[in-house]
Write a structure and sequence with these properties.
118 residues, alpha+beta, HIT family, subunit A, 5 strands, globular, binds guanosine-5'-monophosphate, binds zinc ion
């Protein structure tokens, strides 16, 4: 049994407005936005996090998927008119602040994002 909340969104078992999709990824708004634009981009297949990408997909497919993930984020940022800039974040493991264990990339936009983050 797969209790992953993001897999449920992929399978449409958890109604969520999809704002972008292609063969590999879907994207939707974060339920608790921390910026005016806060979008999550997730692979359709369940991958726990960055540590697990190669074990889940094999090295070749992992390289391709991770490249496509960044290019997809850029495409979504363009569609969302984040022309003044945006931040992309992938949290990995407990110290990285990962709370949902299905790989996802945050796109944050619509305000200035300071550095370093909290
Ligand atoms: P993480 O902390 O793992 O990097 O990010 C997980 C994100 O998923 C959080 O920003 C959280 O608000 C968001 N999230 C958790 N559950 C749901 C949900 O059911 N729907 C949506 N749209 N976002 C969720
Ligand atoms: Zn999942």
């Amino acid at each position: 049994m797969n209790d992953c909340i993001f897999c449920k969104i992929v399978k449409k078992e958890l109604p969520t407005k999809i704002i972008f999709e292609n063969d590999d990824f879907i994207a939707f708004n974060d339920i608790k936005p921390v910026s005016p634009t806060h979008i999550l981009v997730i692979p359709r297949v369940h991958i726990k996090n960055l540590w697990e990408v190669e074990d889940t997909l094999g090295a070749l497919h992992a390289t391709s998927l991770l490249g496509k993930l960044l290019l997809t984020a850029k495409e979504i940022a363009e569609q969302q008119h984040l022309d003044e800039g945006f931040r992309t974040v992938i949290n990995t493991g407990d110290n990285g602040g990962q709370t949902v264990y299905h790989l996802h990339l945050h796109i944050l936009g619509g305000r200035f994002h300071k550095w370093p983050p909290g």
